[in-house]
């Protein structure tokens, strides 16, 4: 299985690296970071570069694509090099997936029309603007399209994808290999469980 993860300026690192870690551990799976041109791409915190080792043109028919989100997502929704690659690659994929606001790029490519999808809680309503019906869920599967909520949900999505594309035993083995056993120190991971005032403080961090 060939997986392609497109990078663009101000992507969120964990959106890309979380699924990368899960899928790169899977036997027989190869994961490649791609961009319009091969080379380093800077994340949305401004101090981490990931290297795209192939261009879109060099990897135009992957089996799986994983589109990360980030604070730069809205800026590239009109980038036809990226959005056009997603649209074209989707015609040949077995699975087309996104993490966080990466789902907005799937929508910009016309892939979410009439489908339910998810994204980061703060931007759920924007999914309506790209033809999708937003739902506040961790992972949403609609045929071969799988969308994940914000950032850390990408790991859940990748494990769920691996279970469907390979088998549950492989997904469980990878989960144990990366010791993914989350026990967050605070119940503040969603607006529903976060203490009063926390959503407002969180929004200041991401806008």
UniProtKB/TrEMBL annotation:
What are its GO biological-process terms? regulation of DNA-templated transcription
Q: What Pfam families is this protein classified in?
A: DJ-1_PfpI
* Domain of life of the source: Bacteria
Q: Which residues form the DJ-1/PfpI domain?
A: 2-163
Record-given protein name? DJ-1/PfpI family protein
Q: Origin organism of this chain?
A: Nonomuraea phyllanthi
